[in-house]
Every structure is written in C-alpha cells, then in structure tokens.
Design goal:
With 155 residues, the protein is mainly alpha-helical. The protein has helices at residues 12-20, 22-35, 37-40, 48-55, 59-70, 87-90, 101-115, 118-124, 128-133, 137-151, and strands at 46-47, 75-79, 82-85. The longest helix is centred in the last third of the chain and has 15 residues, at 101-115. The mean pLDDT is 90.
C-alpha cells in the first residue's frame, strides 16, 4: 500500500483486523457478564483461582479471558493472576443503576446468532432472526422477558 498514514494513526490493515476480530471482545465480555465476574470483584481484587472456584470454571481458561479483557481496559490485572474492576467492568455489575450486564448477555446470545445469519438475509430477504430462532424478534422475546429481566437483577 503506497498511501501515507499520518504519524500516530492506526494503519488501515490494523484497523480492519480489529474490526474483523471485534467479536472476540464481545464474546469475552459475554463470558464475564454471564459468570457474574464483576459482581465477584465488587469488594476488591481477587485471584483468578478464587474467581474460577466461585464461577465453577477452569482457572487457566478464565485467566485468559480476563487478561484479554484487561488488554482492552475492561478489567485490570492488579497483580499477576489477580483481577480488579475498572469503570468499564463496573458496568457489568448486577443491580446497579447503570448496569449493562443484561445487554452484554443478550447481545452475545440472541443478537450474536442473528447477526451470524445476515448473509442469509441479504441473499433471501428473509429476517436472520427468524431464520435462526424460528420466530420474530418480539414474539421470541415475549415468553423470555422474565428471564431477561432476572438477568439484570441477579448475578
């Protein structure tokens, strides 16, 4: 590529790569939200082994997810293997006025799958959500609204 990139600017290939792999971050956010990690860190930093025990997960795997999220500012690794909240991670807490936990879960479950079918929509004109779930978005949500609401009020 012969185009000059201004000093300090992200080169176009790096920008495009970040866009292509953006789902890695959204899926890692989903894992942290689904497991309630931010709630477990509300009282301060905790070692990944304690977080894994509390979430019934594999400690090395959870550490990789939390380190990935720390690399984009979601959590911070206060000491090696010990994680803490950041202002962004605090938004994943349950029951706070500004909680975005339920959205992180919904976007990475139903919405993630529906967006995976967007090529089908473009090719056929059919709705990707209906193709993935067998019902319209709002018809699908109606019987599940209780579980979505509960998701925002409990860890």
């Amino acid at each position: 590529m012969s185009e000059n990139v201004p000093t300090g600017a992200v080169p176009p290939p790096a920008t495009l790569l970040q866009m292509m792999t953006g789902y890695w971050v959204s899926q890692a956010l989903y894992v942290a939200a689904k497991l309630g990690v931010a709630d477990l860190l509300a009282d301060g930093p905790r070692p990944v082994e304690a977080l894994a025990a509390a979430t019934q997960t594999d400690a090395p795997s959870l550490r990789r997810v939390l380190r990935a999220l720390a690399s984009v500012g979601i959590f911070t690794e206060a000491h090696p293997g010990t994680f803490a909240l950041t202002p962004l991670a605090a938004l994943l807490r349950t029951g706070t006025p500004d909680s975005m936990r339920a959205l992180a879960i919904m976007y990475a479950e139903e919405q993630y799958r529906a967006w995976g079918g967007v090529l089908h929509s473009v090719q056929t004109g059919d709705t990707a959500f209906e193709q993935q779930f067998g019902d319209s978005y709002f018809a699908y949500l109606a019987p599940n609204i209780q579980s979505l609401t509960a998701c925002s009020t409990r860890p």
